Amino acid sequence: MHPDRCGVGGPARGVGGQGVKVIGMGLRRRGQCDGSPLVQRRGNGDAAGLGTCTKLPTPPLPAPPIESKRRRYVLLDAAARLLPDARVADCSRFTQSGGDAVTVHGGEGRGWYSGLAVCGDVWTCPVCSVRILTRRRGELEAGLTAARKRGWSVLLLTVTVRHHAGEGLPDVLRALREAWTKTRSGAPWSRFAAAHGVVGSVTALEVTHGGEGWHPHRHILLFLDHVVSKAEREDMRAWLSERFGTMAARCGRYASPDYGVDLRANGAAVSYVSKLDAELTASESKAGSGSTPFALLAKAATGDAVAARLFTHYAGAMRGAQRLRWSRGLRELLGVDVLEDAEAASEDPDQDQGAAGPLAVLSRDQWARVVRAGKRGELLTFAAFGSRQVVWQYLSILGVQRGSWNDDREAAADQVGEVGNECA
After folding, report:
1. Are 360 and 408 in contact (CB under 8 A)?
2. How far is 358 from 386, CA to CA, in rounded Å?
3. Could you report the per-residue pLDDT of 278-323, keeping only the tens digit for each?
4. Whole-number Å distance between alpha carbons of 251 and 247
5. 163-180: b or e for each residue (b if 16 or more CB lie within 10 Å)?
6. Cα–Cα–Cα angle for 409, 413, 415, nearest 5°?
7. Is the pTM of this model over 0.85?
8. Angle at CA 225, nearest 5°, toward 221 and 229?
């Protein structure tokens, strides 16, 4: 059986040497009354808690959201191996400061954790990045809505410089940053902004890698105080192309008049914002002929040494860079509340998707066992059923046994109506 069909497919590693075997759907064994998977244990370690055979439901398929989340935790483990000294190596491994427990939540096809310390790294953490970018998407959507109510236009400007295979990412990033900074500086930019009613901007930095090496580019949402005609947009693009090309040349780079600058109308801005939280977090994500950094990380997780080297190089180059930046005063003018990355990373979007109660409260030691087994993502696929019984069945397979401490903590949560149903 493919491991995606059941979270316990194949031997479970890191659980005291004990293995878990799943007998596939439709195979009958004595005592099995239906075609559900049978979980068999090998060995006599402390993982034995369900008896000889335990039936667990297969995680709901198709379930893209929960499956995507499972994969992100797999990628998080890969990032931790590649970057052992970075913040991402400790993300979601330990409880928050002052906390002594991790709570597993789930139901209605969703699952998430609370009580965990997160790294807040939008560049290298596949778990935090999707949370941060989901928040950023909401903030930008609020900004676009406010601008539309004012009768403004929002144009999508993209700028990049020529790059070559073999160039280091820091060099290309530096040239792009300097060229754009020079473009929007001085009297020429002030006259351009005044002539076209540029109220402010939001700048996003993105990076892909392809046959021509590293390809960093900036997407800039330009907020203008009127409805922009096609003729005016074409005039703006011509000026921006010439100006950016000149500044890139001063930085020792070339910006193509045709491809170095692109300026699109309102609809492009809306489309870009709607996809913001997916662009860099899907391991399969592509951009043209290039791969996103998390696609490189996914390859590295399978043993691709070249991808591992590229992702490590990328992580070093992006340290300290801003993913998205509002120009001064714009978010206040539009009434948009913006969270810092660390705060945005602490909010799982699934928490706001409806009622789904906590299912299990784990001690630090119990959570450490889940982490060592590499099953943080897989546990959530079982939490998605909304059944405490199913969650604890799976945890027992990992050697996490429910005790009086768990009973007490969950009973306390029950009293305030926090814990989900005993059975789905």
Report:
1. no
2. 8
3. 654 444 444 455 789 999 999 999 999 999 999 999 999 999 999 9
4. 6
5. beeeeebeebbebbebbb
6. 120
7. no
8. 80
